[in-house]
Structure formats: C-alpha cells, structure tokens
Amino acid sequence: MPIMIVGYEMDWESIVVNLITNASWALESKLAIDRKIKASIHSDGDNWVFSFHDSGVGLEAGTEKSVFLPTFSTKRSKAGEVIGTGMGLFIVRSFVEEHSGGSIAAISNGILGGASFEMVIPKASKH
Ligand SMILES: Nc1ncnc2c1ncn2[C@@H]1O[C@H](COP(=O)(O)OP(=O)(O)OP(=O)(O)O)[C@@H](O)[C@H]1O
Ligand SMILES: [Mg+2]
To answer: Could you point out which of 1, 39, 54, 118 has its C-alpha 20 to 30 Å from the C-alpha of 47?
Structure first.
C-alpha cells in the first residue's frame, strides 16, 4: 500500500536530514560497532507512525519536551561554547504539526538505548 500523507517533499527531506544529523552527533562518543540507527513506519488505523531510534547518548533527563523549543541546544565545542542553533527539532516539529497535521514526541532512552522520536501523521486520501 502506498504511504500517502499531506506535506511538502522538501519538508520531509529536512525532517530526515535533521534527525540523521542529530543521531550522528549523539553517536560520536560510541564505538563504531555500537553505532546504530533504526527507522520504521507502521500503520495505526488512520495514521502512519514514523519511528526513528539511535543508540547514542540519549536525551538529557527531563528535556523530552524542551528539545523542540527554538534555540534549545546542548551541542558544545571542546572549549564549551554553544555550537548548535537549537532550531533543528523546532523546524521538524513545525513541519510535522503545521504542514502534515501530525504530532511528534521524543523519548530519552528508546529501544536502541539512545533517543527515539515518534511522529504520528494522519493518512491522506488520494483526492
Ligand atoms: N538523537 C539525539 N540524541 C540525543 N540528544 C538529541 C538528539 N537529537 C536532539 N537532541 C537534543 O536536542 C537538542 C536540540 O536539537 P536541535 O536539532 O533542535 O538543535 P541542535 O542539534 O542542538 O542544533 P543544530 O540543529 O543547529 O545543529 C540537541 O542540542 C540535543 O540536546
Ligand atoms: Mg540538530
């Protein structure tokens, strides 16, 4: 069955790039053999559920909601300066909610040990 959702192709490229970029950063401190990313899609009645998991450092405790706020970032250089814009997940959430009518949630330590993100997107009809 084709997966049909409402949204701009460019937005979905941006969503995937942001999630992969964040996962790559979260995996930097792990041994190569322990670096895992898993993405899956399943149907849940009226919605498509997109899940994205990594085996990285996980979200800092208590930040499951704040990671989506604009300018929230824990990315630091070796000198301790903030190097993330903190806009990635804010943009992801905007696209998911405003353009595709869905929702997104983050889990600190998901099935691979690191962060998990789950997006619930309403199915679109062909018309
Ligand atoms: N896969 C992940 N594992 C662990 N923490 C994550 C992950 N993805 C996001 N985070 C946390 O959420 C914060 C916000 O992410 P977001 O993508 O919005 O900004 P950023 O990655 O810090 O900056 P930028 O996107 O500009 O590089 C990150 O700084 C990090 O603390
Ligand atoms: Mg980011």
So the answer is: 54
